[in-house]
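User: My collaborator sent over this chain with a note saying "see what the structure looks like." That's all I know about it. Can you take a look?
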Amino acid sequence: MKLAPHLHRLGNDIVASYLVDLPDGITLIDAGLPGHWHDLQRELEEMGRSLSDIRGLVLTHGDGDHIGFAERLRREAGVPVFIHAADAHRVRTGEKPKTPMGPARLGPTLGFFAYGIRKNALRTHHVTAVTEVADGDVLDLPGAPVVIGMPGHSPGSIAVHVPLADAVFVGDALTTRHVLTGRTGAQPAPFTDEPHEALASLDRLAGISASWVLPGHGAPWRGSPADIAAAVRAA
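Assistant: Without extra context I'll predict from the sequence alone. Here is the result:
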């Protein structure tokens, strides 16, 4: 789905990833679930693009619902996969600390897991080769994405700022739809390793200039990163 010039979304408010489409190619942010592979191909066809136009995949962190088709894209299309060094082990092995599930409602929780099953979440392949990045790196990819360290949800969680797309991609540093309760609006994301650290990391968003804040779960936020960070704290 096209959100704005240069900006497309795959998936939906349950699980989403994004494409930044520029004349010199595409930068992909996150890889959703394995079944989103077909959504990717359809979106590329509608854009008049192909897999060969994707120059790189940047993962906001290493959880399974963000790495879905990453290994397939790397293996079949030769697309390099970038992730913060602190999450490189997680993306290679799938190891993740057990975190309290927190509040949940039966309907939304079942809907989240049912969607995962429909999109082949149980067939996620871990990524065997990655390029490690660090806070402050400017990647040599379309749009010159800037890596912003956002530890808390995971040690290597990042936001990705693409000024040419007027957007910052925040992964699970926050959410606009809680996948377990169904509650909408800016709020902390569930399954967060270190909730207090995640809230502190929101300060990193305050100085970013962007009109779109794009989470891995929930509706796109049309407004400033500073405003959504304040809304999450208020929630």
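A starting point for your reply to your collaborator: The first helix runs from residue 36 to 47.
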